[in-house]
Design goal:
Blueprint: E1 2-5, H1 15-21, H2 31-47, E2 51-61, E3 66-68, E4 71-72, H3 76-81, E5 87-94, H4 98-109, H5 111-141, E6 146-151, H6 163-170, H7 172-175, E7 179-180, E8 186-187, E9 191-199
Antiparallel strand pairs: 1-2, 2-3, 2-5, 3-4, 5-9, 6-9, 7-8
Length: about 230
Amino acid sequence: MYLINTDYNTLEVRPEEIWKSLGWKNQKVSEELKEKTESIIDKAKHLIKPKSVLLTGDLVKTEDSLSFYGIELGGKTIKNFLETSGSAALMAVTLGIEIDREIKRLERTDLTSALLLDACASLLVEALCDKVSDDLALEMKEENLYTTERFSPGYSDLPLELQPKLLNLLDTQRKLGLTTTSTNLLIPRKSVTAFIGIMDKPREIRSSRCNNCILKGKCKYGICYHET
């Protein structure tokens, strides 16, 4: 099943979320920064062109491997994460290239605005992921199925080297204008690919990415960190 949606133009982000992502800890914020942040949010909303594509299918499991549409998903963590899932959804989302270009332009002329816009865009792409995930969960609920959280290449030991194969499977260059560099970074930069497990029974506790990670207890961040 393919789902393609380009109607995600109601994404929201608050100034406080942007400041917090940049290290703000409830310090007093100047009126100038408040106004600049609001202006940046308005700019971002005009620049982004949110698009998504999603493909569902069965997971093929053996004792030693896990694959999706013939693509083997390496690493132990994704196997644990999808242990109770008989099928999965692969999603790709992007905000488009224009916001990338504006961030690069501002880096040469107004570094503060560039930092604010970059943080804003990162939050907006996560909001887009949430909306796609929520839409999938609602659709699966109608079939008495349940979904997990998202799990992206680059989390724990799921290799980034999967990105070209996943993008090819979803035909993202044609559908979304989404490609990858020779080092497997996504272009446009404010883009995400992720797997979502689909189950016939809900988990008693929705495990976080950290709970399924082989680095649990060793990671200095305490979260699964990836660049957006």
